[in-house]
Specification:
- This protein is α/β, with parallel strands linked by helices.
- It has a domain of about 160 residues: Glutamine Phosphoribosylpyrophosphate, subunit 1, domain 1, CATH 3.60.20.
- It is about 45% helix and about 15% strand.
- Strands 2, 3, 4, 5, 6, 10 and 11 form a seven-stranded antiparallel beta sheet that branches. Strands 14-13-12-15-16 form a five-stranded parallel beta sheet, sandwiched between helices. A four-stranded mixed beta sheet has the order 1-8-7-9.
- It is globular, with a radius of gyration of 23 Å.
């Protein structure tokens, strides 16, 4: 017997249709946008995990679906796990929910999961299907899971970011193909908006600027751009771009926000529960900005947010930082531990423990036949898009549904991903082909390309980044702190001070040097989980 507990109705509501519960949105095989109820209807005849996995391979979007079938329950989440599903074994069967906290309320006792605490504190997420609570599990990104009435569990992955082959087309043809894909993405996006206000979190970078450019080029004028933080490079470029495109621009000045009182606000703690959800760092970055947009009525209630997540990554910005194989580092687990788990200084035993868990991840990893590369590790990239991106990067977008808004992810479009997946790595390094196309086809024609003034990734930046991995442990804390404050346009130093003041040492490793403000957020959230476990009682 299975208990299904669905409590999260913000932004996207759960739609129930006969044996199906669906949340989110879909594009079908032809690229047509499906409303939630229409999307739910396509699952009613599904009776097996194989059928469900095959159906979802032809779809794209952000969704979770639960199907009651003969002999048990089928559940699936999209490749970015935007609407996570959790499960636990109970005395009378399975318990499945969209809220880790809601499932925890069913437990008589709760214990923190000490096995995963080091990786969470160092990277802001928990690997695999584990959470920060022992016995509470999470369906992995892009997975179909069958919960048998007999108590067995079977899982099937239906998404991989692995190349079957690399294109041999010349650059001119590849650029033409990408230009055509961008036009189709614009069409799909505008169809799904249905005339509603598009809200673009517009930074000084290329991805959000591209989304604003796509809307302008397609004639979609019902667009608002906003940025946030302290005045500086990001806000200056954002204002300039929005003004040139003729879009309304809003700036949310974080200097005006009370940095000490927000932890006492019920809405913030609800947000922490909604986005942390026992497995991820609750992102602060856009919370205060979106809250102000809503509270002050600066955008319509039915607005749709369009963040620029993953455009630069898919295009190749992180290849040299994390995907390139380094001579002398043959062990993938060691590369991943050093490249991704760095928020705080790890002890030698903690590094070994995390590397052991990474090896276990790959031991359980089954993938289809694929093309590899002698210089770049395609399997590390697939790990990244299965682990860090769903639980950390994309998780930040959950701020939009928390405040009641829908969102779209234009640069996670399946056709966009497929194009770059087949692209030889030398075209993706430093985003070479991507930047060239969007500059020539969008930014220059629209007058929003600023030439030498652009802050773009350069080979020297990558070399400095890779060098810093080795020397960071030797740098004095005062220098690390000074460097962090210099880049702190989001005023995280002040926001996280309130968290530091409330973080208890009980149950946590001894505090060490932090290399990111995110480390302070993770430490505070972990302490909240530990306190919750203590209040419930341990076995």
């Amino acid at each position: 017997m299975a208990k299904i507990l669905l409590t999260q109705q913000k932004g996207f509501e759960w739609i129930h249709d006969d044996n199906v519960s669906f949340k989110g949105y879909l594009y079908d095989r032809r690229g047509s946008y499906l409303q939630a109820r229409e999307a739910a209807g396509i699952f009613t005849d599904i009776s097996s995990a194989g059928q469900l996995a095959k159906l979802l391979q032809g779809m794209q979007g952000a969704y979770s679906v639960i199907i009651r079938v003969s002999g048990g329950i089928l559940a699936a989440v999209d490749p970015v796990n935007m609407f996570p599903l959790f499960y636990a074994k109970t005395g009378d069967g399975w318990a499945i929910s969209d809220s880790g906290d809601a499932l925890c309320n069913l437990f008589d006792h709760m214990e923190p999961n000490s096995e995963v605490l080091p990786e969470f504190l160092a990277a802001g997420f928990v690997m695999g299907d584990d959470t920060l609570i022992s016995g509470l599990m999470r369906i992995r990104a892009g997975e179909v899971v069958f919960f048998s009435e007999k108590g067995q569990l079977s899982r099937y992955s239906n998404y991989y970011f692995l190349p079957t082959s690399f294109s041999g087309d010349p650059p001119a043809l590849l650029k033409k193909e990408l230009t055509g894909i961008m036009l189709k993405i614009s069409g799909r996006l505008i169809e799904s908006l249905g005339g509603r206000t598009a809200v673009v979190p517009l930074s000084g970078g290329y991805d959000s600027r591209l989304i604003a450019s796509m809307l302008k080029s397609a004639g979609y004028e019902n667009t608002i751009c906003f940025t946030y933080g302290a005045p500086g490079y990001e806000s200056e470029v954002s204002k300039k771009v929005a003004g040139q495109l003729g879009f309304r621009w809003i700036f949310v000045d974080y200097r005006d926000i009370d940095k000490s009182a927000y932890l006492d606000e019920e809405v913030f703690m609800d947000y922490v529960s909604f986005t942390g959800n026992t497995a991820s760092m609750p992102y602060l970055q856009e919370y205060f900005a979106v809250k102000k947009l809503r509270d002050e009525g600066l955008i319509p209630e039915n607005s749709v947010f369009l963040p620029g997540h993953t455009g630069d990554y898919i295009a190749g910005s992180y290849l040299e930082k994390t995907i390139r194989k380094h001579r002398g580092e043959k062990d993938r687990a060691i590369r991943i531990t050093g490249g991704y788990f760095w928020f705080t200084r790890l002890t030698g035993s903690q590094k070994k423990h995390i590397a052991k868990r990474v090896r276990k991840w790959f031991y359980d990893y089954e993938h289809p036949p694929c093309q590899t590369d002698p210089v770049y590790d395609v399997f590390t990239e697939d790990w990244d898009l299965k682990e860090k991106f769903p639980k950390f990067i994309f998780n930040s977008a959950r701020v939009f549904p928390f405040f009641g808004y829908e969102f779209r992810l234009p640069l996670w479009d399946r056709e966009f991903r497929s194009f770059f997946r087949k692209l030889p790595f030398h075209y993706r390094t430093y985003k070479a082909l991507y930047d060239d196309v969007i500059e020539q086809e969008y930014f220059k024609p629209l007058g929003i390309y600023y030439g030498a003034g652009e802050e773009k990734e350069k080979p020297g930046d990558i070399k400095a980044h890779n060098l810093s991995r080795y020397i960071r442990p030797l740098v004095p804390r005062s220098i690390i702190n000074k460097k962090m404050q210099k880049r702190d346009y989001l005023l995280y130093c002040e926001f996280t001070k309130a968290m530091e003041d409330r973080t208890l040492n009980g149950g946590l490793p001894q505090k060490t040097q932090v290399n990111s403000y995110n480390a302070k957020i993770c430490r505070w959230y972990a302490s909240e989980i530990i306190k919750k476990c203590s209040s419930k009682g341990s076995r």
